[in-house]
Structure formats: structure tokens, C-alpha cells
Structure to design on (297 residues):
């Protein structure tokens, strides 16, 4: 039981970090019906900015995180305006190629600036144990990560449901042509979506590498992006809270299912997550909480 609880706590921690990145993917998908393959690398670059602000400029870690999120949002807004908006939003192939190019370029740029060696990231949550049950310990890091993802998901939902820009974003994500005919400025609205996704993604990357067992380096988010994309697809690519549930599902599969199934080696945790994704999409193509597509015939 102690071992099970320890793995349960690990699943909560990992799943919550995947959920934060999945939220960023869902925000972009809701706006463009496109998976941003550079989302993880944009988040990694934002985390490096936070590291510089916290360690070299001496800012408190949460002040550095907020400033890093704002700078990441500004960078993503520029990327949307310069590299994304000139293309036809209905032709996804050029946009996919652009995001893949961004994936490679941002990784290389981070390596040039900060090199490829791992770096320790400052703590974002108190050290120590919050709850001890037998030999299983629930750390303040896990408590903080779960609280962070719930707060962020709630704030993003509130933003999209109660503000003017949120209403415009929901309209554009529902029907781009009708939104434009209604007088909504589609370009700036999509730019807002990219900025919001970058800010959330940067927070997710910071939370991920703030775990004492991890370090920040230019390729740290490659594996995380795959887990997060699986989480977003499982929950439903247009569902914010579905991304949270999907992230927790992937975290539990990685921490509980893989260790308890004897014939699955730990190195196959990534493949196992993809298999779970395939099984969900086989029976629920729109994901657990996604909106089923309706087509007229």
C-alpha cells in the first residue's frame, strides 16, 4: 500500500505538469485547429528566461516566473504575426512545417545561448513533506503542482467565459468566417491565443523543471510534449478541463500501470501512453470531453 501511494503521488505530480502543457496545446488548437509542435520548445525558452531573471538578476522566483510568462507571451505574439498570420488558416500543411521549423530553431538558439549542459532550477514550492502515510510521502512540490494546474485551468476558463477578448476568442474558435463577418478582429484574437498559450506553457515548463530531481536544458521538453499532446487528445483537443483530466490519466499510466504490469519495461512508458491514446481515440475519436464534429451531408 505504501508503494502504491508513493506511485499515486508521483502520478499526480507528473500528470499535473503534463496538464499544464496540454492546456497550452488546447488553447492553440481551439483557435486554429492546429497542434503547435513548437509549444514545448517555446515553453523551454521561457523557462530559461525565468532562470536568468531569478539567478542572474536576483528576482524572487515567482516574480521571475510572471515576468517570464509575459515575455514569452510577447514573443509568441510576434511569432504569430510574422510567421503564422501570413498563411491561409485553412491550409494546415504550411503551418505544421512552420511549427516544426520553430521547434528546431528554438532548440538550437537555446543551445547557442545557454549551451546544452543541464542547469539546476530554483525551487518554486517549499521543500519538505506535506503529508506522510506510512512510508509514502506527499511533498509540498506535488501539492503545489496540483494546486497550480487547478488554479490556471480555472483562471483560463474564467478569462474565456467572462471577458470581451475571451468571448471573441470563443467565437473565432467556433467559426472563423462568421466571426470575421460579425466584425471581430480575427488576427489580433488569434494572436491573443498564441500569447496566452505561451504564457501557460512557460509556467508548465518552470513547474516541471522545478522538481529537485530534474534540471533545465534545451531538450528537456521534447518528451514532455509527447505526453502532453497525448493528454490533450485523450481529454479532447478543444476541452480545457479535458486536458487536465488527460494529463492526470497519462501521469497515472506512467507511474502506476507501467510499474505494476510486469511485462512492460519502464523504458516503454512513452509507448504505453501512446497506446492508451490510441485506445481512447478508437472508441472516442473526439476524446473523453471533446466536442464531436458534426458535418452536413
Amino acid at each position: 500500500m505504501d508503494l502504491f501511494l508513493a506511485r499515486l503521488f508521483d502520478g499526480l505530480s507528473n500528470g499535473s505538469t503534463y496538464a499544464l502543457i496540454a492546456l497550452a496545446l488546447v488553447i492553440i488548437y481551439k483557435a486554429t485547429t492546429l497542434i503547435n509542435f513548437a509549444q514545448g520548445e517555446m515553453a523551454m525558452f521561457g523557462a530559461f528566461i525565468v532562470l536568468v531573471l531569478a539567478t542572474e538578476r536576483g528576482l524572487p522566483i515567482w516574480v521571475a516566473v510572471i515576468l517570464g510568462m509575459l515575455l514569452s507571451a510577447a514573443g509568441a505574439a510576434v511569432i504569430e504575426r510574422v510567421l503564422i498570420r501570413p498563411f491561409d488558416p485553412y491550409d494546415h500543411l504550411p503551418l505544421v512545417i512552420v511549427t516544426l521549423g520553430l521547434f528546431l530553431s528554438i532548440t538550437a538558439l537555446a543551445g547557442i545561448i545557454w549551451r546544452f549542459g543541464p542547469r539546476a532550477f530554483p525551487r518554486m514550492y517549499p521543500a519538505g513533506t506535506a503529508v506522510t502515510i506510512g512510508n509514502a510521502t506527499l511533498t509540498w512540490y506535488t501539492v503545489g503542482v496540483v494546486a497550480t494546474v487547478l488554479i490556471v485551468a480555472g483562471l483560463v476558463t474564467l478569462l474565456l467565459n467572462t471577458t470581451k477578448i475571451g468571448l471573441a476568442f470563443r467565437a473565432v474558435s467556433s467559426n472563423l468566417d462568421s466571426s470575421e463577418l460579425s466584425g471581430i478582429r480575427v488576427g489580433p484574437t488569434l494572436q491573443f491565443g498564441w500569447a496566452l498559450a505561451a504564457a501557460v506553457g512557460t509556467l508548465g515548463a518552470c513547474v516541471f523543471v522545478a522538481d529537485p530531481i530534474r534540471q533545465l536544458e534545451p531538450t528537456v521538453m521534447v518528451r514532455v510534449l509527447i505526453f502532453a499532446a497525448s493528454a490533450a487528445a485523450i481529454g479532447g483537443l478543444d476541452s480545457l478541463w479535458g486536458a487536465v483530466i488527460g494529463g492526470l490519466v497519462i501521469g497515472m499510466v506512467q507511474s502506476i500501470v507501467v510499474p505494476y504490469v510486469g511485462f512492460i519495461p519502464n523504458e516503454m512508458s512513452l509507448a504505453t501512453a501512446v497506446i492508451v491514446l490510441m485506445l481512447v481515440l478508437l472508441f472516442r475519436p473526439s476524446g473523453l470531453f471533446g466536442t464531436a464534429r458534426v458535418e452536413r451531408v
Notes: DSSP finds eleven helices and two strands in the chain. The chain has a mean pLDDT of 88.
